[in-house]
Amino acid sequence: MLRQFRRNSDGSAAIEAAIFAPLFLVIMLGITDLGAGMFVNMTANAAAQAGAAYAAINTNSTCTAPMTAACLSGIETAMNDAANNSSFCTGTVCLVSIGTCTDGSQKCISVTANYPYTPVLPDAVYTWGASPQTYSSTITIRIQ
Amino acid sequence: MNSRFQKLFWKCSTGAVAVTTALVLPVLLGMASLGVEVGHWYLGQRQMQGAADAAAISAAAQYIEDYPTNPASTTYQMVGVSYALINGFTIPTSQVCLVTSSGNNCGTVLALDSRPLVCSNPPCVVVEIAQNTATWLTTKASFMPGAGVVQSIPTPTLLARAIVSAKNQSQTTITKGSDCILALANDTAAITVHGNGNLDANCGVAVDGGIDQNVSGTAVGGITFNGAPSSIHVSNLIVAASSTNCPGAHCFLYNPSTSALPASEVFTKTATADPYATQIAALFTTTPLGVKTGGVAIKTQGSGYTNGTCTFTVSGGAYYTTTSSPAQFTATISGGKVTAITAVTDPGAYATFPSGSVSATDTCGGSGATFTLTEGCWTWNSTLFPVVNGAVQALAGRKYCSINLNGAGSTNFRAGTYWIAGGDSCPGFCVSSNNATVTSDAAGVTFLLTNGEGSTANTYATAAITSGSVSLCAPGTSTGATCTTTNFGTQCTNAAGPTSCLLFVQNPAATASTASGLANPATTNTFDGNGTRTLSGLIYLPKQTFAEAGNGPILGCVGIIAKYIDVGGTPLFNNGCLPGNGIGGTTTTTTTWGTPYLYQ
């Protein structure tokens, strides 16, 4: 009986497929996660750039130190537009600060987009990742 | 053996999936890794561009800060490098460079990235970030689909460039003055209102207290009232002295005219400078030269001229302006020869006067006559001018001894500038007949009162309008086809040339009035007249006295700058529409940050 089972090759393809399928699945979903993560990272980067550009352009008008509500609102609108998502800047996703620069100059603007991302595969697969993963992009510009 | 093994090999399906996997997996992994790499390049490129933009704006900020004190500073390069690092990329200082209108120091940048440097508004700060993608590679090689062989993954160099204009913007803010009357004297009676006089002005009145004329000591200056009914009705009052000298019984608001001038419209200790000193001095640097009345002498009589009266047009010389015309005179011909000069019908206007033996063209067929011309002012003679619709048409652009309208009749001043060089039978610009009607073309006239000619060369011409109906418009003030009591205009177009908005302008070197009121008749300029008049433009008498004793409104853009102002009549002025910023206006220029403009 056992010998017959060993010798019988019927259904061996199914068994082999059953062994390799999870491996394929992990690879495929891993590629998907990498691509989607890159997209999210680029979105966060684009949003941070757009926010910083808004602040730089309006440095003579609304964007003065200390931070004004009008400037913050304009930056968040610019970031939402860049992310193509009208509710991109919710919670603590978009962080903006105007203050003294690290090199001692009077006015620096720093715009950060912390965009959370939940991969398809469980976090445990990505041992380097926190839960949930967050892609962060910061642009710091000296404007005076 | 061989064939049997082969047959068995192809027939046996044992381990087929393992074999398939072994073959397909590397291809799949290779393609996946290539896809990941390419995706990574795009992500990296975006991050580089963001960092380049941030670094370029930051470097431009430093450049703008340094420029006023040290235009050659290269600190902006350090800042560019520093902010590229803050935003995640390390670059050498040579990749932060500057494009100016005369060149650039971007050799390294152009060697890396041959795209042209677009900078339409120099100077521009350029930041170039370059990354070799090999540094990011997770795998160095991959199966290439189709080729079936292992190939190395391409590693292009990614480039991101940001160009930011670092041009400062200057913003000029012009505050229009609200005043139309300015008295410059350092005298408590800089403005005198007497008798039933009422200075009624829909504008501010300023008294400079001598500050502008560099009078040492304390600035005094204000308004003196002689006579219980004398009053002013003005929009506001500004004096350099500590007190306006303007009691409530005499000082009223223009509108409503029954209200006393409120304290909020009275300003003390505020000097008001003459804003036109420089502009007006330039008008008197050169005066046109012309043939004086009786200034033609016959040198050679010539021959072949038709007997009678002949008109000659002078040849030679250089015109005062390109539009000037040559001098003309009439002469009597007898026996085919020029025997006598009848009149100088046009003195011409020359920068270089025709000298020596001067020839002239004629319409009488002769030749050979030459003349000697004498330069000087031209005496007003209304019979020499053309008459249109019953009005004598005065010639503009000429130098007159005086303009003496002492008879009845209409005189229209054609558009242009009239130089009055000292006075002869009258002291300058005179209208003394009650039945005289004086008008100007709508394009506007300017009367320049100066000296050097006439009966006494040292005397400066003055204005003496003692009666008559006067409607005169300065260039840029009239809105209609003629300057009348309806087309005087309430705005002045400054674009009408250097004499825009200027009506009567006296040479600032003129003999000064030394006392208020009418105490100095020789230096008093009178602007009386009948009923409603139009004097549209600035009347500028910085050293002398402006006197007004006529009754009725004075229409147009009336502005008055004089050392002393004396009002015995009841003139009613509109707000002055004056050249430049008007009286009491300011121009402030502030340099502001240019809006950072990203080109690439």
How would you concisely characterize the structure shown here?
The complex is a heterodimer of chains A (144) and B (600). Chain A has 144 residues and is of the alpha+beta class. Chain A is built from three helices and three strands.
Strand order of the largest sheet of chain B: 8-10-40-38-37-39
Query: Roughly what is the average pLDDT of chain B, rounded to an integer?
Result: 84
Oligomer: heterodimer
Q: Tell me the number of helical segments of chain B per DSSP (H or I, 4 or more residues long).
A: 5
User: What fraction, in percent, of the residue positions of chain B are helical?
Assistant: 10-25%
Count of DSSP H/I helices of chain A: 3
Shape category of chain B:
elongated
Kindly state the number of beta strands of chain B: 42
First CA to last CA of chain B: what distance?
A: 72 Å
State the major sheet of chain B. 6 strands, parallel, barrel
Main interface: chain pair and counts: A-B, 34 and 38 residues
Report the structural category of chain A: alpha+beta
Portion of residues in beta strands of chain B equals 35-45%
Number of strands of chain A: 3
What is the string of helix and strand elements of chain A?
HHHEEE
Structural class of chain B: mainly beta
Mean pLDDT across the residues of chain A is 82
The fraction of residues in strands of chain A falls at 15-25%
What's the helical proportion of residues of chain A? 40-55%
Explain what this protein looks like in three dimensions.
- The complex is a heterodimer of chains A (about 140) and B (about 600).
- Chain A has helices at about 1-5, 10-55, 70-85, and strands spanning about 95-100, 110-115, 135-140.
- By secondary structure, chain A is α+β, with helices and mostly antiparallel strands.
- In chain A, strand 1 (about 95-100) and strand 2 form a beta hairpin.
- The N and C termini of chain A lie far apart (about 85 Å).
- In chain B, a hairpin with a 2-residue loop joins strand 23 and strand 24.
- In chain B, helix 2 (about 15-65) packs antiparallel against helix 3.
- The interface of A and B includes residues 20 and 141 of A.
